[in-house]
Amino acid sequence: MEREMDDEEDCPELIPIKEPAIKDNVEDIQSSNNFKIPVTIISGYLGAGKTTLLNYILTEQHSKRIAVILNEFGEGSALEKSLAISQGGELYEEWLELRNGCLCCSVKDNGLKAIENLMQKKGKFDYILLETTGLADPGSVASMFWVDAELGSDIYLDGIISVVDAKHGLQHLKEEKPSGLINEAARQVALADLIIINKVDLVSQAELMKLRTAVCAINGVANILETQRSRVDLSNVLDLHAFDGVSGKSLQQKLQLEEEPRAHLDKSIVTSTFEVLGSATEEDLNVFIQNLLWEKNVKDKKGNPMEVIRLKGLVSIKDKSHQVIVQGVYELYDLEETTVKWKEDERINRLVLIGRNLDNDILKALFIATVTKREENS
């Protein structure tokens, strides 16, 4: 149970809903913001501090009109004190509007139609935060937004955040699951673009370093923030651009600093990263990725199929002057050209794969073969 609030003063303050004022505000927002609305998924184990983070964002003074979508209102949470409104079969069941213009609601259906329906009722927002339940797989939620973006939706996936409890996080990551199943806490860390280690004031520096080491072993490319009571600089949490070409430059810097792969506690989930010089055709690159993500016919030395949870990278495609960012979550992946141009003698592909049974040598050899195949054909 997430109960980190000191007292009632932390509860969001409710104000009466005035429909005309909302509509006026919406028209102003829509006239000035003719772009898609970013969605950030916030995951984390039970008690890590997700609700506290959301309460903080909802009550903090900022210039954004943020909608927070909750799978459910946690028992004992300040969010319980929302307005319970009967919507007569609508897809959202509870909502409240705050003095800083933010909106908080509980959605019965995580589908995009529920969120788009909410926007039609209450107008467009500057930002949407979606909280998943403690054991939920953020990857499946992310996939839903990603696919819909191709269908012309006016919302897009900005990034995945995982909140980790500094005191109990290591215990959660160590928890053994039945054969074939992935530890939920480890999965959430593996999929994250930003990891917030919360409650750092409750552990020693040595304990914190153990947890950081375990987290970095699972996900070597996510940014890590250390916090107390989920207090974060919102500029570090919003507008991550983790799934689009804007992140190309920062990703390149991050990949250049990434070290050799390190094994997770139970050696099941690892971060594998490698660099290969050269260019591949888009067709050959798609074959390489699809064999990994779709066909799952790439195996380690023991014959186990490699299971990719998250894929990130910058690749060089023949006849393209700009760097291309590749993003993957489970079976879904996307290639997007960035604004960064290649220097012809520095076309270095950098890939990061997070998953199980990953063999760095085999993966690198396969990618080298993909690049070499293009050279042989030409």
Automatic annotation (TrEMBL):
InterPro entries, per the entry: CobW-likC_sf (IPR036627), CobW-like_C (IPR011629), CobW/HypB/UreG_nucleotide-bd (IPR003495), P-loop_NTPase (IPR027417), Zinc-reg_GTPase_activator (IPR051316)
Pfam family, one: cobW
Ranges in a coiled coil: none
GO cellular component, one term: cytoplasm
Domain CobW/HypB/UreG nucleotide-binding span(s) in chain numbering: 38-225
Keywords: Chaperone, GTP-binding, Hydrolase, Nucleotide-binding, Zinc
GO function terms (MF aspect): GTP binding; hydrolase activity
Domain CobW C-terminal: start-end pairs: 300-368
Catalytic activity reported: GTP + H2O = GDP + phosphate + H(+)
Family under the similarity heading: Belongs to the SIMIBI class G3E GTPase family. ZNG1 subfamily.
Name of this chain's protein: Zinc-regulated GTPase metalloprotein activator 1A isoform X1
Organism classification: Eukaryota, Metazoa, Chordata, Craniata, Vertebrata
